[in-house]
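User: Predict the structure for this protein chain, please.
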Amino acid sequence: MSIKVPATEHPVSDLVRNRWSPRAFSPKSIEPAVLKTILEAASWAPSANNLQPWSYVYATKENTEQFEKLKSILLPGNHLWAQHADVLILASAITAYGPDNTPNAYAWYDLGAANATLLLEARQHDVFGHVMGGFDRKKAKEVFHFPEHVEPVVVIALGHLGEAGQLDEPFYTREVTPRSRKALGEFAFAGDFPS
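Assistant: Here is the predicted structure, written as structure tokens:
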């Protein structure tokens, strides 16, 4: 079990550098109070007009029925490893608000900020998260009876870090491959966007 801490161009905080997306989870449970803290952290993310347009449906492995419902929406490749996480969370964007169902163009962006805040809080408690787009959105809306204005966006697996050796390929190789990111000069520009 090793945390993949990358080298950075600039002195990025340890909290950010230590956040990564493993697929190997240990059988250790996340304490209920810690899970509540992680979930509450999402509420402190910034959002347009403070609408907080996000919703989380979650289950721990102990809540077998709800956990199975969440597992049932995963695509097969993600199901192989995510079933070993301690918690599964379906993160959704609330795309309209108010009595007139006014569209919220920033709902997905705001949900992303909430998810990032949740994941950083998780690392404070030695918990790791892996965000997945590989799930059946239509089935998720049906299984969880979502209204029209609630859009399932990602599923998050949470748990304590396990051993890479417990994973089959191609997941083992992904787990042990060093992390990399684009260089700062490839995405941040002082002035005009390069042509």
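The longest helix spans residues 107-124.
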